[in-house]
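During the no-cost extension, the postdoctoral fellow (Dr. R.K.) reprocessed legacy sequence entries with the updated structure-token encoder. One reprocessed record is reproduced below for audit purposes.
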Amino acid sequence: MKTRILTGLAGLSVAIATIVSTAGLANAKTLDLVFWPPTIEPQNICSPDNREAKPDDLSVGESDERLKDSQRLQFLRRDIRRLRQDDADQWFDSILTLINWRVRLSEKYSPLAAQLDIIQLYIEAGRLEALKTAGLVAGIRGQSDGLTSQKKLILAQYYLNGIGVAPDVDYARSLILEAAFAGNAEAFLALARMELNGNPMPGWDAPLDITVTLAFGGLLGQMNSTVCLRARRLANEYQYGDIVSANDEVAYAWYKFAADLGGGESAWRIVEFHLNADAARKDNEEMVKYLRLALSNGIALEDSQVEQLKSSGGIDEAILLSILGYNRSSDTGRKWPSVSRYFQMSVNLDSEKVDKDSPYIEYLQELSQFDAAPGWVFTKLAKEVLVRRGRWAAEAEALSLLEIAAQRRDPEGMQLLARKLIRQRDDPAILHRAINLLTQTVSQHGLMSSMDYLDSLYRCQANQAPMLHEADFWAENYGAAQHQTVQVSATDLITLDPFREPLVLAQLQSQALAGRAGSMANFLQRLQVDPLASERAHRLWAARTDHSNKALELFAELEFELATNPAERHLAIELFRRIYLNNGVASALDLSIALIEDNARNPAIAAEIITMLTQAGNRGEGASIRLMARLLAKERDPASVYDEFKDIIEERGDFLALMFAIPYISADKLDDYIDRAVSLMSCGTKDVDELGDAYAIHLYPEMSYHWRRIGLTFKGGHVLSKLRLSDLQMGAFKDGRSPEALDIYTRELAEGSRTALQTLYRLTVDPDLETYDPVAAAEHMLAVLDRGGPGDQTWVLSNYRRAGSSLRSLVAAKIDIEQIYRRAAQRGDVGAKLEYGLYLRDLATTSGDLGESTRWLGEAAESGNVRAMAEFGYALAMGLGVPQDRETALVWLTQAGERGDETAKDLAHLVRLQRGF
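Re-encoded structure tokens follow.
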């Protein structure tokens, strides 16, 4: 063995010891090298408390802020990234424009860096031949002196693999060598891999151990916010890497180093180490310390992990709950734990009035000046000015922008332009153009929602409506496309049977994956109440929902509607408040409604509601204005509420705002307000009735009748005649038996699913189920044992001991179950030790059998298993195969009781009574 002490690696002025085994280096596939982390005081470098809020480009609060270069570059980088992810080939020219603009804006973004990004764009767009023809990679070669070491490695990969240029292995190697001489860690690793694979780099004479040590020192780098990620990579190198030999002790040291600097993932890896360690290496005090660190730095535990902490971790239940904090304790009173703890919401307080300009508008206006600006830029700009300056005040400006978007074939712009043109439905030519635009977005761009708009246009909005032949054509096609958002009530949502209504659930999931806000909220609610859904799935879908303000709001509505007790109602209100702070005024109305239902009698809450409704009303939200008028009806005439908002309604009023204004406007404004409302309406009974009422108020009976007649043409007739059954439920009547769970999982088993066996066992072992079949249950258990790993074996042992006598007899007739118990326990599995001890106790016929049982229970108890502590204490108290020892029994029972085992508490009380205190 030999030891070298190296100092000053990558800016670290600390001594790092490396121990290298020289044996067998010539033919080794990995290097026996130990690289320890430096000694450093614990500090929170990687997870600062002041986390940055999520950026919100569409905030509508007042501000004098103008567009800064830093914001301009932020918007640019985001748009480049979004377009590349969407379709690099489709948006190729647009991305090139943005890259070139970024070069002009940022001194730090050199033309050389831009050229490398352009090469990557060609690759992502699949234009490899065009890349070679353009000669961009060869052009980079001529400027390689100006490349950073990292960029030289990228260029080396192009020449090694012949991407955009003829392969040149010698040149690629020279680039790697240059990067290595410049101290690049990735280059050192590349050289090490080459030598380990028997292909050493000519010109690199450093010993392999020095090369790897330099690489690892470079990977560690400076002590900044990314050091924990780099330390985790070093830990991974010692667990899963291809350069150094596996060394759990060194990996543990690097995880601990990262955890002490604020790395949540690394802290949890330390917890896992102690959970899985044998008794000699388990340190519960250290495990609790790093569990606290993991949770405080953003790690959320799965239910299975919590149970593992209870059973194998030896952690007191009360301590565990205090560590988990809101993750568990705040859900007291709920039927199921909420996924809301995974939302990463920020605070976005809107002002009372809307700012008519914003940095984002300025950015879009600048972007629109480029000759190659795509249509979506003009669509986004139109939508932004409509929000900020008012849908009616900015109508002319938005229409001109949408015309450009339509000319540049942006489907969303074409669709929005068509919907705006419906306001001019009295002109047949304009209405016909709207129809053509919507039809083109379907036939040429596949925009399914336009079929629904065409149905509405023919059924409700055209002056000649209802035009049922045309409307039904588009309605049938829209239904066949299965694009319509799945409509399901909150209570039906959580009771959907996956075997009886698989189509509904499949559509729901597909639409959630497509980013539909309502479906994301519904699907997340389904996952939340699904006992089989993993915590990983909860986190994934919570993160998806978190990116949509509308989906967050709809999820909060579901939480409020599904609350079944005061505790759940309180938690739903608090979630609604958090989402309101995140979303701003967009969620003011829904929070106001929830607060009215909850506790509006409180004067402070009533004042809060009026403030929020005023803010929402100032954005032209008619439902908020109406609700405010109703709430203040005892103290204010509704006409005064109209007077307060009439200018807002004129500039930006939505459908309900326009309808609220109808009784108070002059006759000469009626047609204009009706045309505005029709262009915004949903073709349903509520909006149709509103329009009928509007004409009735102004004494136009023929037009009131027109809208009533349209309402009668809706599917199912008048709204009051409809039953509480969905079209899917009606369509499924007498359509054939739905598959049962047993059928489904039998098919999954035939298709190779491993988890299907355990589910089939549960379905066939329970005598209360129609599918009860002990013979089949025994076969499933044996199959799990035959096909599974150690974890499956523990599952079998646990379930076997709890099974009925008939099933145990069937299994025992085919395998030596006791030998399986013994081997699993001898392997060191704590759970297996507990199960084996209890198994021996159940079958014991002699004192020796009981003694053996108690010995295994003792080993499991010493490993920290709480249930084993209670059982071991009971065995000592009763003298089961061992001398009776109430003193020691009381110690174990008390310890188990303190960690949440209620049976242990009762037994400890009995032992104390027997001892006379």
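Residues 69-87 form the longest helix (19 residues). The first strand starts at residue 2 and ends at 6. The remaining legacy entries will be reprocessed before the final report is submitted.
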